[in-house]
Write a structure and sequence with these properties.
four-stranded mixed β-sheet; about 25% helix; elongated
């Protein structure tokens, strides 16, 4: 197709910076010595010494913090009280939940969970055996006429 106007670059030929200022502007990372942490061991070493902690290069170099060993870390598998109420209703239909004094007895470890959280609403009286529970979960279970019993459990 025929072009109606000349491209702007045609007008800028011969002007050295093509309208981008006096010296060395409108470049990518060349004007700043490289992207990111490039050059911290070479031409930007003075920045590392100036802004790093006591001339050691921290926080730019070295390892920071620690990673907890898998042997002692806990893999939490939580369930909310609202979801637990639905699960108990399903187990009741299947006849897989025990009743004790008009309350349903549930062991969360047997169901594959190890923490009870307070999300949702519960309207069933449930006795819950669990290794850990949040304060709001305990309050909601007790308000519905149930009870939370904390049991020791081996994690993982």
């Amino acid at each position: 197709m025929v072009r109606r106007f000349k491209r702007a670059v045609k007008y800028r030929r011969g002007s050295r910076t093509h309208g981008w200022g006096r010296v060395g502007q409108h470049r990518k990372s060349g004007g700043s010595g490289g992207k990111g942490m490039v050059g911290f061991h070479k031409h930007k070493w003075s920045l590392v010494m100036k802004y790093g902690e006591s001339g050691t290069g921290w926080p730019f170099y070295g390892k920071h913090g620690f990673k907890q060993p898998q042997a002692i870390s806990i893999e939490w598998r939580p369930i909310n009280v609202g979801t637990l109420a639905e699960v108990v209703r399903g187990l009741k239909r299947e006849g897989r939940v025990k009743e004790e004094g008009g309350r349903y007895v549930v062991n969360l470890v047997e169901l594959g969970f190890n923490k009870l959280l307070g999300g949702g609403d519960v309207d069933l009286p449930i006795v819950v055996y669990t290794p850990a529970a949040s304060r709001s979960a305990v309050e909601k279970i007790e308000k519905a006429g149930g009870e939370v019993r904390i049991v020791p459990a081996v994690h993982r």
